[in-house]
Amino acid sequence: MLELKNKIAEEGKICAGNIVKVDSFLNHQIDVKFLERIGKEFYELYKNTNVNKIVTIETSGVPIAMEVAKCFDCRVVFAKKGKTKNLSDNFYETEVMSYTHGEVYKICLAKEFLGENDNVLLIDDFLANGAALNGLLEIVEKAKANLVGCGVVIEKGFQPGGKNIRKKGIRLESLVIIDKIDEEKQEITFRGE
Amino acid sequence: MLELKNKIAEEGKICAGNIVKVDSFLNHQIDVKFLERIGKEFYELYKNTNVNKIVTIETSGVPIAMEVAKCFDCRVVFAKKGKTKNLSDNFYETEVMSYTHGEVYKICLAKEFLGENDNVLLIDDFLANGAALNGLLEIVEKAKANLVGCGVVIEKGFQPGGKNIRKKGIRLESLVIIDKIDEEKQEITFRGE
């Protein structure tokens, strides 16, 4: 998605540790008109499928998932993080290892909002090692829902998350794949360039 | 907002401790078409002002804020919770007392996304004791931004948050105000009924 590449080039900030910060438009401040176009892009990729539920994880997945859901005219449900209290049989839950924060956290999703009649598109902002997305995949499996595929805004192609998910035969669409981040030169190389 | 009252009556669940759960459409599963109408309702209330930035707090404020921002054609910025690591001079921060979870947490917002040129509408899903909203008000003040007003989807009129904010002379619009929750009868009384 050319507009996304340009946006990352213009507004993204390269930080130490192969980090690209896009918090001016994607995950702290949100450019809502731009996210509308992101939503339509995922819709174009998946419009010939039977998607009827968008699943994501709080917080930064939520605004993107909303725009996708609007195109499909369906509801979003987002997994909640670190809610260890008050959990009951009413929730699917699993554990996720966060490489960014070096800790394990729980994610959960209420059983009443995901089940075998749901054809699920998983949406998230970033895919690096794939920890969050794998957590969501586990929850979809526990719910016996039908997984249609995954959609990620920015995939870091030099980390193994995307490759591992595709290896399982799961459809994964990333709007851009970053192959290299050069902190010194402040340069990002996108796949296909 | 009649549609919202009906939605709460139909889909809301009354739980012990004066809790109304609306997680089938507002803060776990999200009814995106309904949120569009919520966004327009806030726009109607504030359209004659100079709002150019929507500020909210993660997670459940974000989808609502997005719909409001779309009407005003401006960006959203959301305060992040509990991010104590990696904080620097680049963030406004304050502490919030959560009555629901019985704990104090930090909220923060990057300085680059809020400043004296911003005319702010604060948006949140619930207003009870006003802890979160007061935290956001503090951040707006620290940023020397201009506060236009606040918009809340569901105010609990029997808790002091709303009253205290209005007493300060701040404009606060709640789409519905709940005056009473009767767990035994499973009945909600809205203000004006």
What does this structure look like?
- Two copies of one chain form a homodimer.
- By secondary structure, chain A is an alpha/beta fold.
- In chain A, 29% of the residues lie in helices and 37% in strands.
- The first copy, chain A, is built from five helices and eleven strands.
- Chain A has helices at 2-11, 32-46, 61-72, 131-142, 161-167, and strands spanning 13-15, 19-21, 29-30, 53-57, 75-81, 91-98, 103-110, 119-127, 146-156, 172-182, 187-190.
- In chain A, the strands form two sheets. Chain A has an eight-stranded mixed sheet with strand order 6-7-5-4-8-9-10-11, sandwiched between helices. A two-stranded antiparallel sheet of chain A has the order 1-2.
- In chain A, helix 4 (131-142) links the parallel strand 8 (119-127) and strand 9 (146-156).
- In chain A, helix 2 crosses helix 3.
- The model of chain A has no long low-confidence stretch (mean pLDDT 95).
- Chain A binds chain B through residues 23-25, 28-33, 35-36, 58-59, 62-63, 66, 69-70, 73, 75-78, 80, 85, 101, 109-110, 112-113, and chain B through 23-25, 28-33, 35-36, 58-59, 62-63, 66, 69-70, 73, 75-78, 80, 85, 101, 109-110, 112-113.
Q: How confident is the prediction overall: mean pLDDT of chain A?
A: 95
Strands ordered across the widest β-sheet of chain A: 6-7-5-4-8-9-10-11
How many helices of chain A? The count is 5
Radius of gyration of chain A: 16 Å
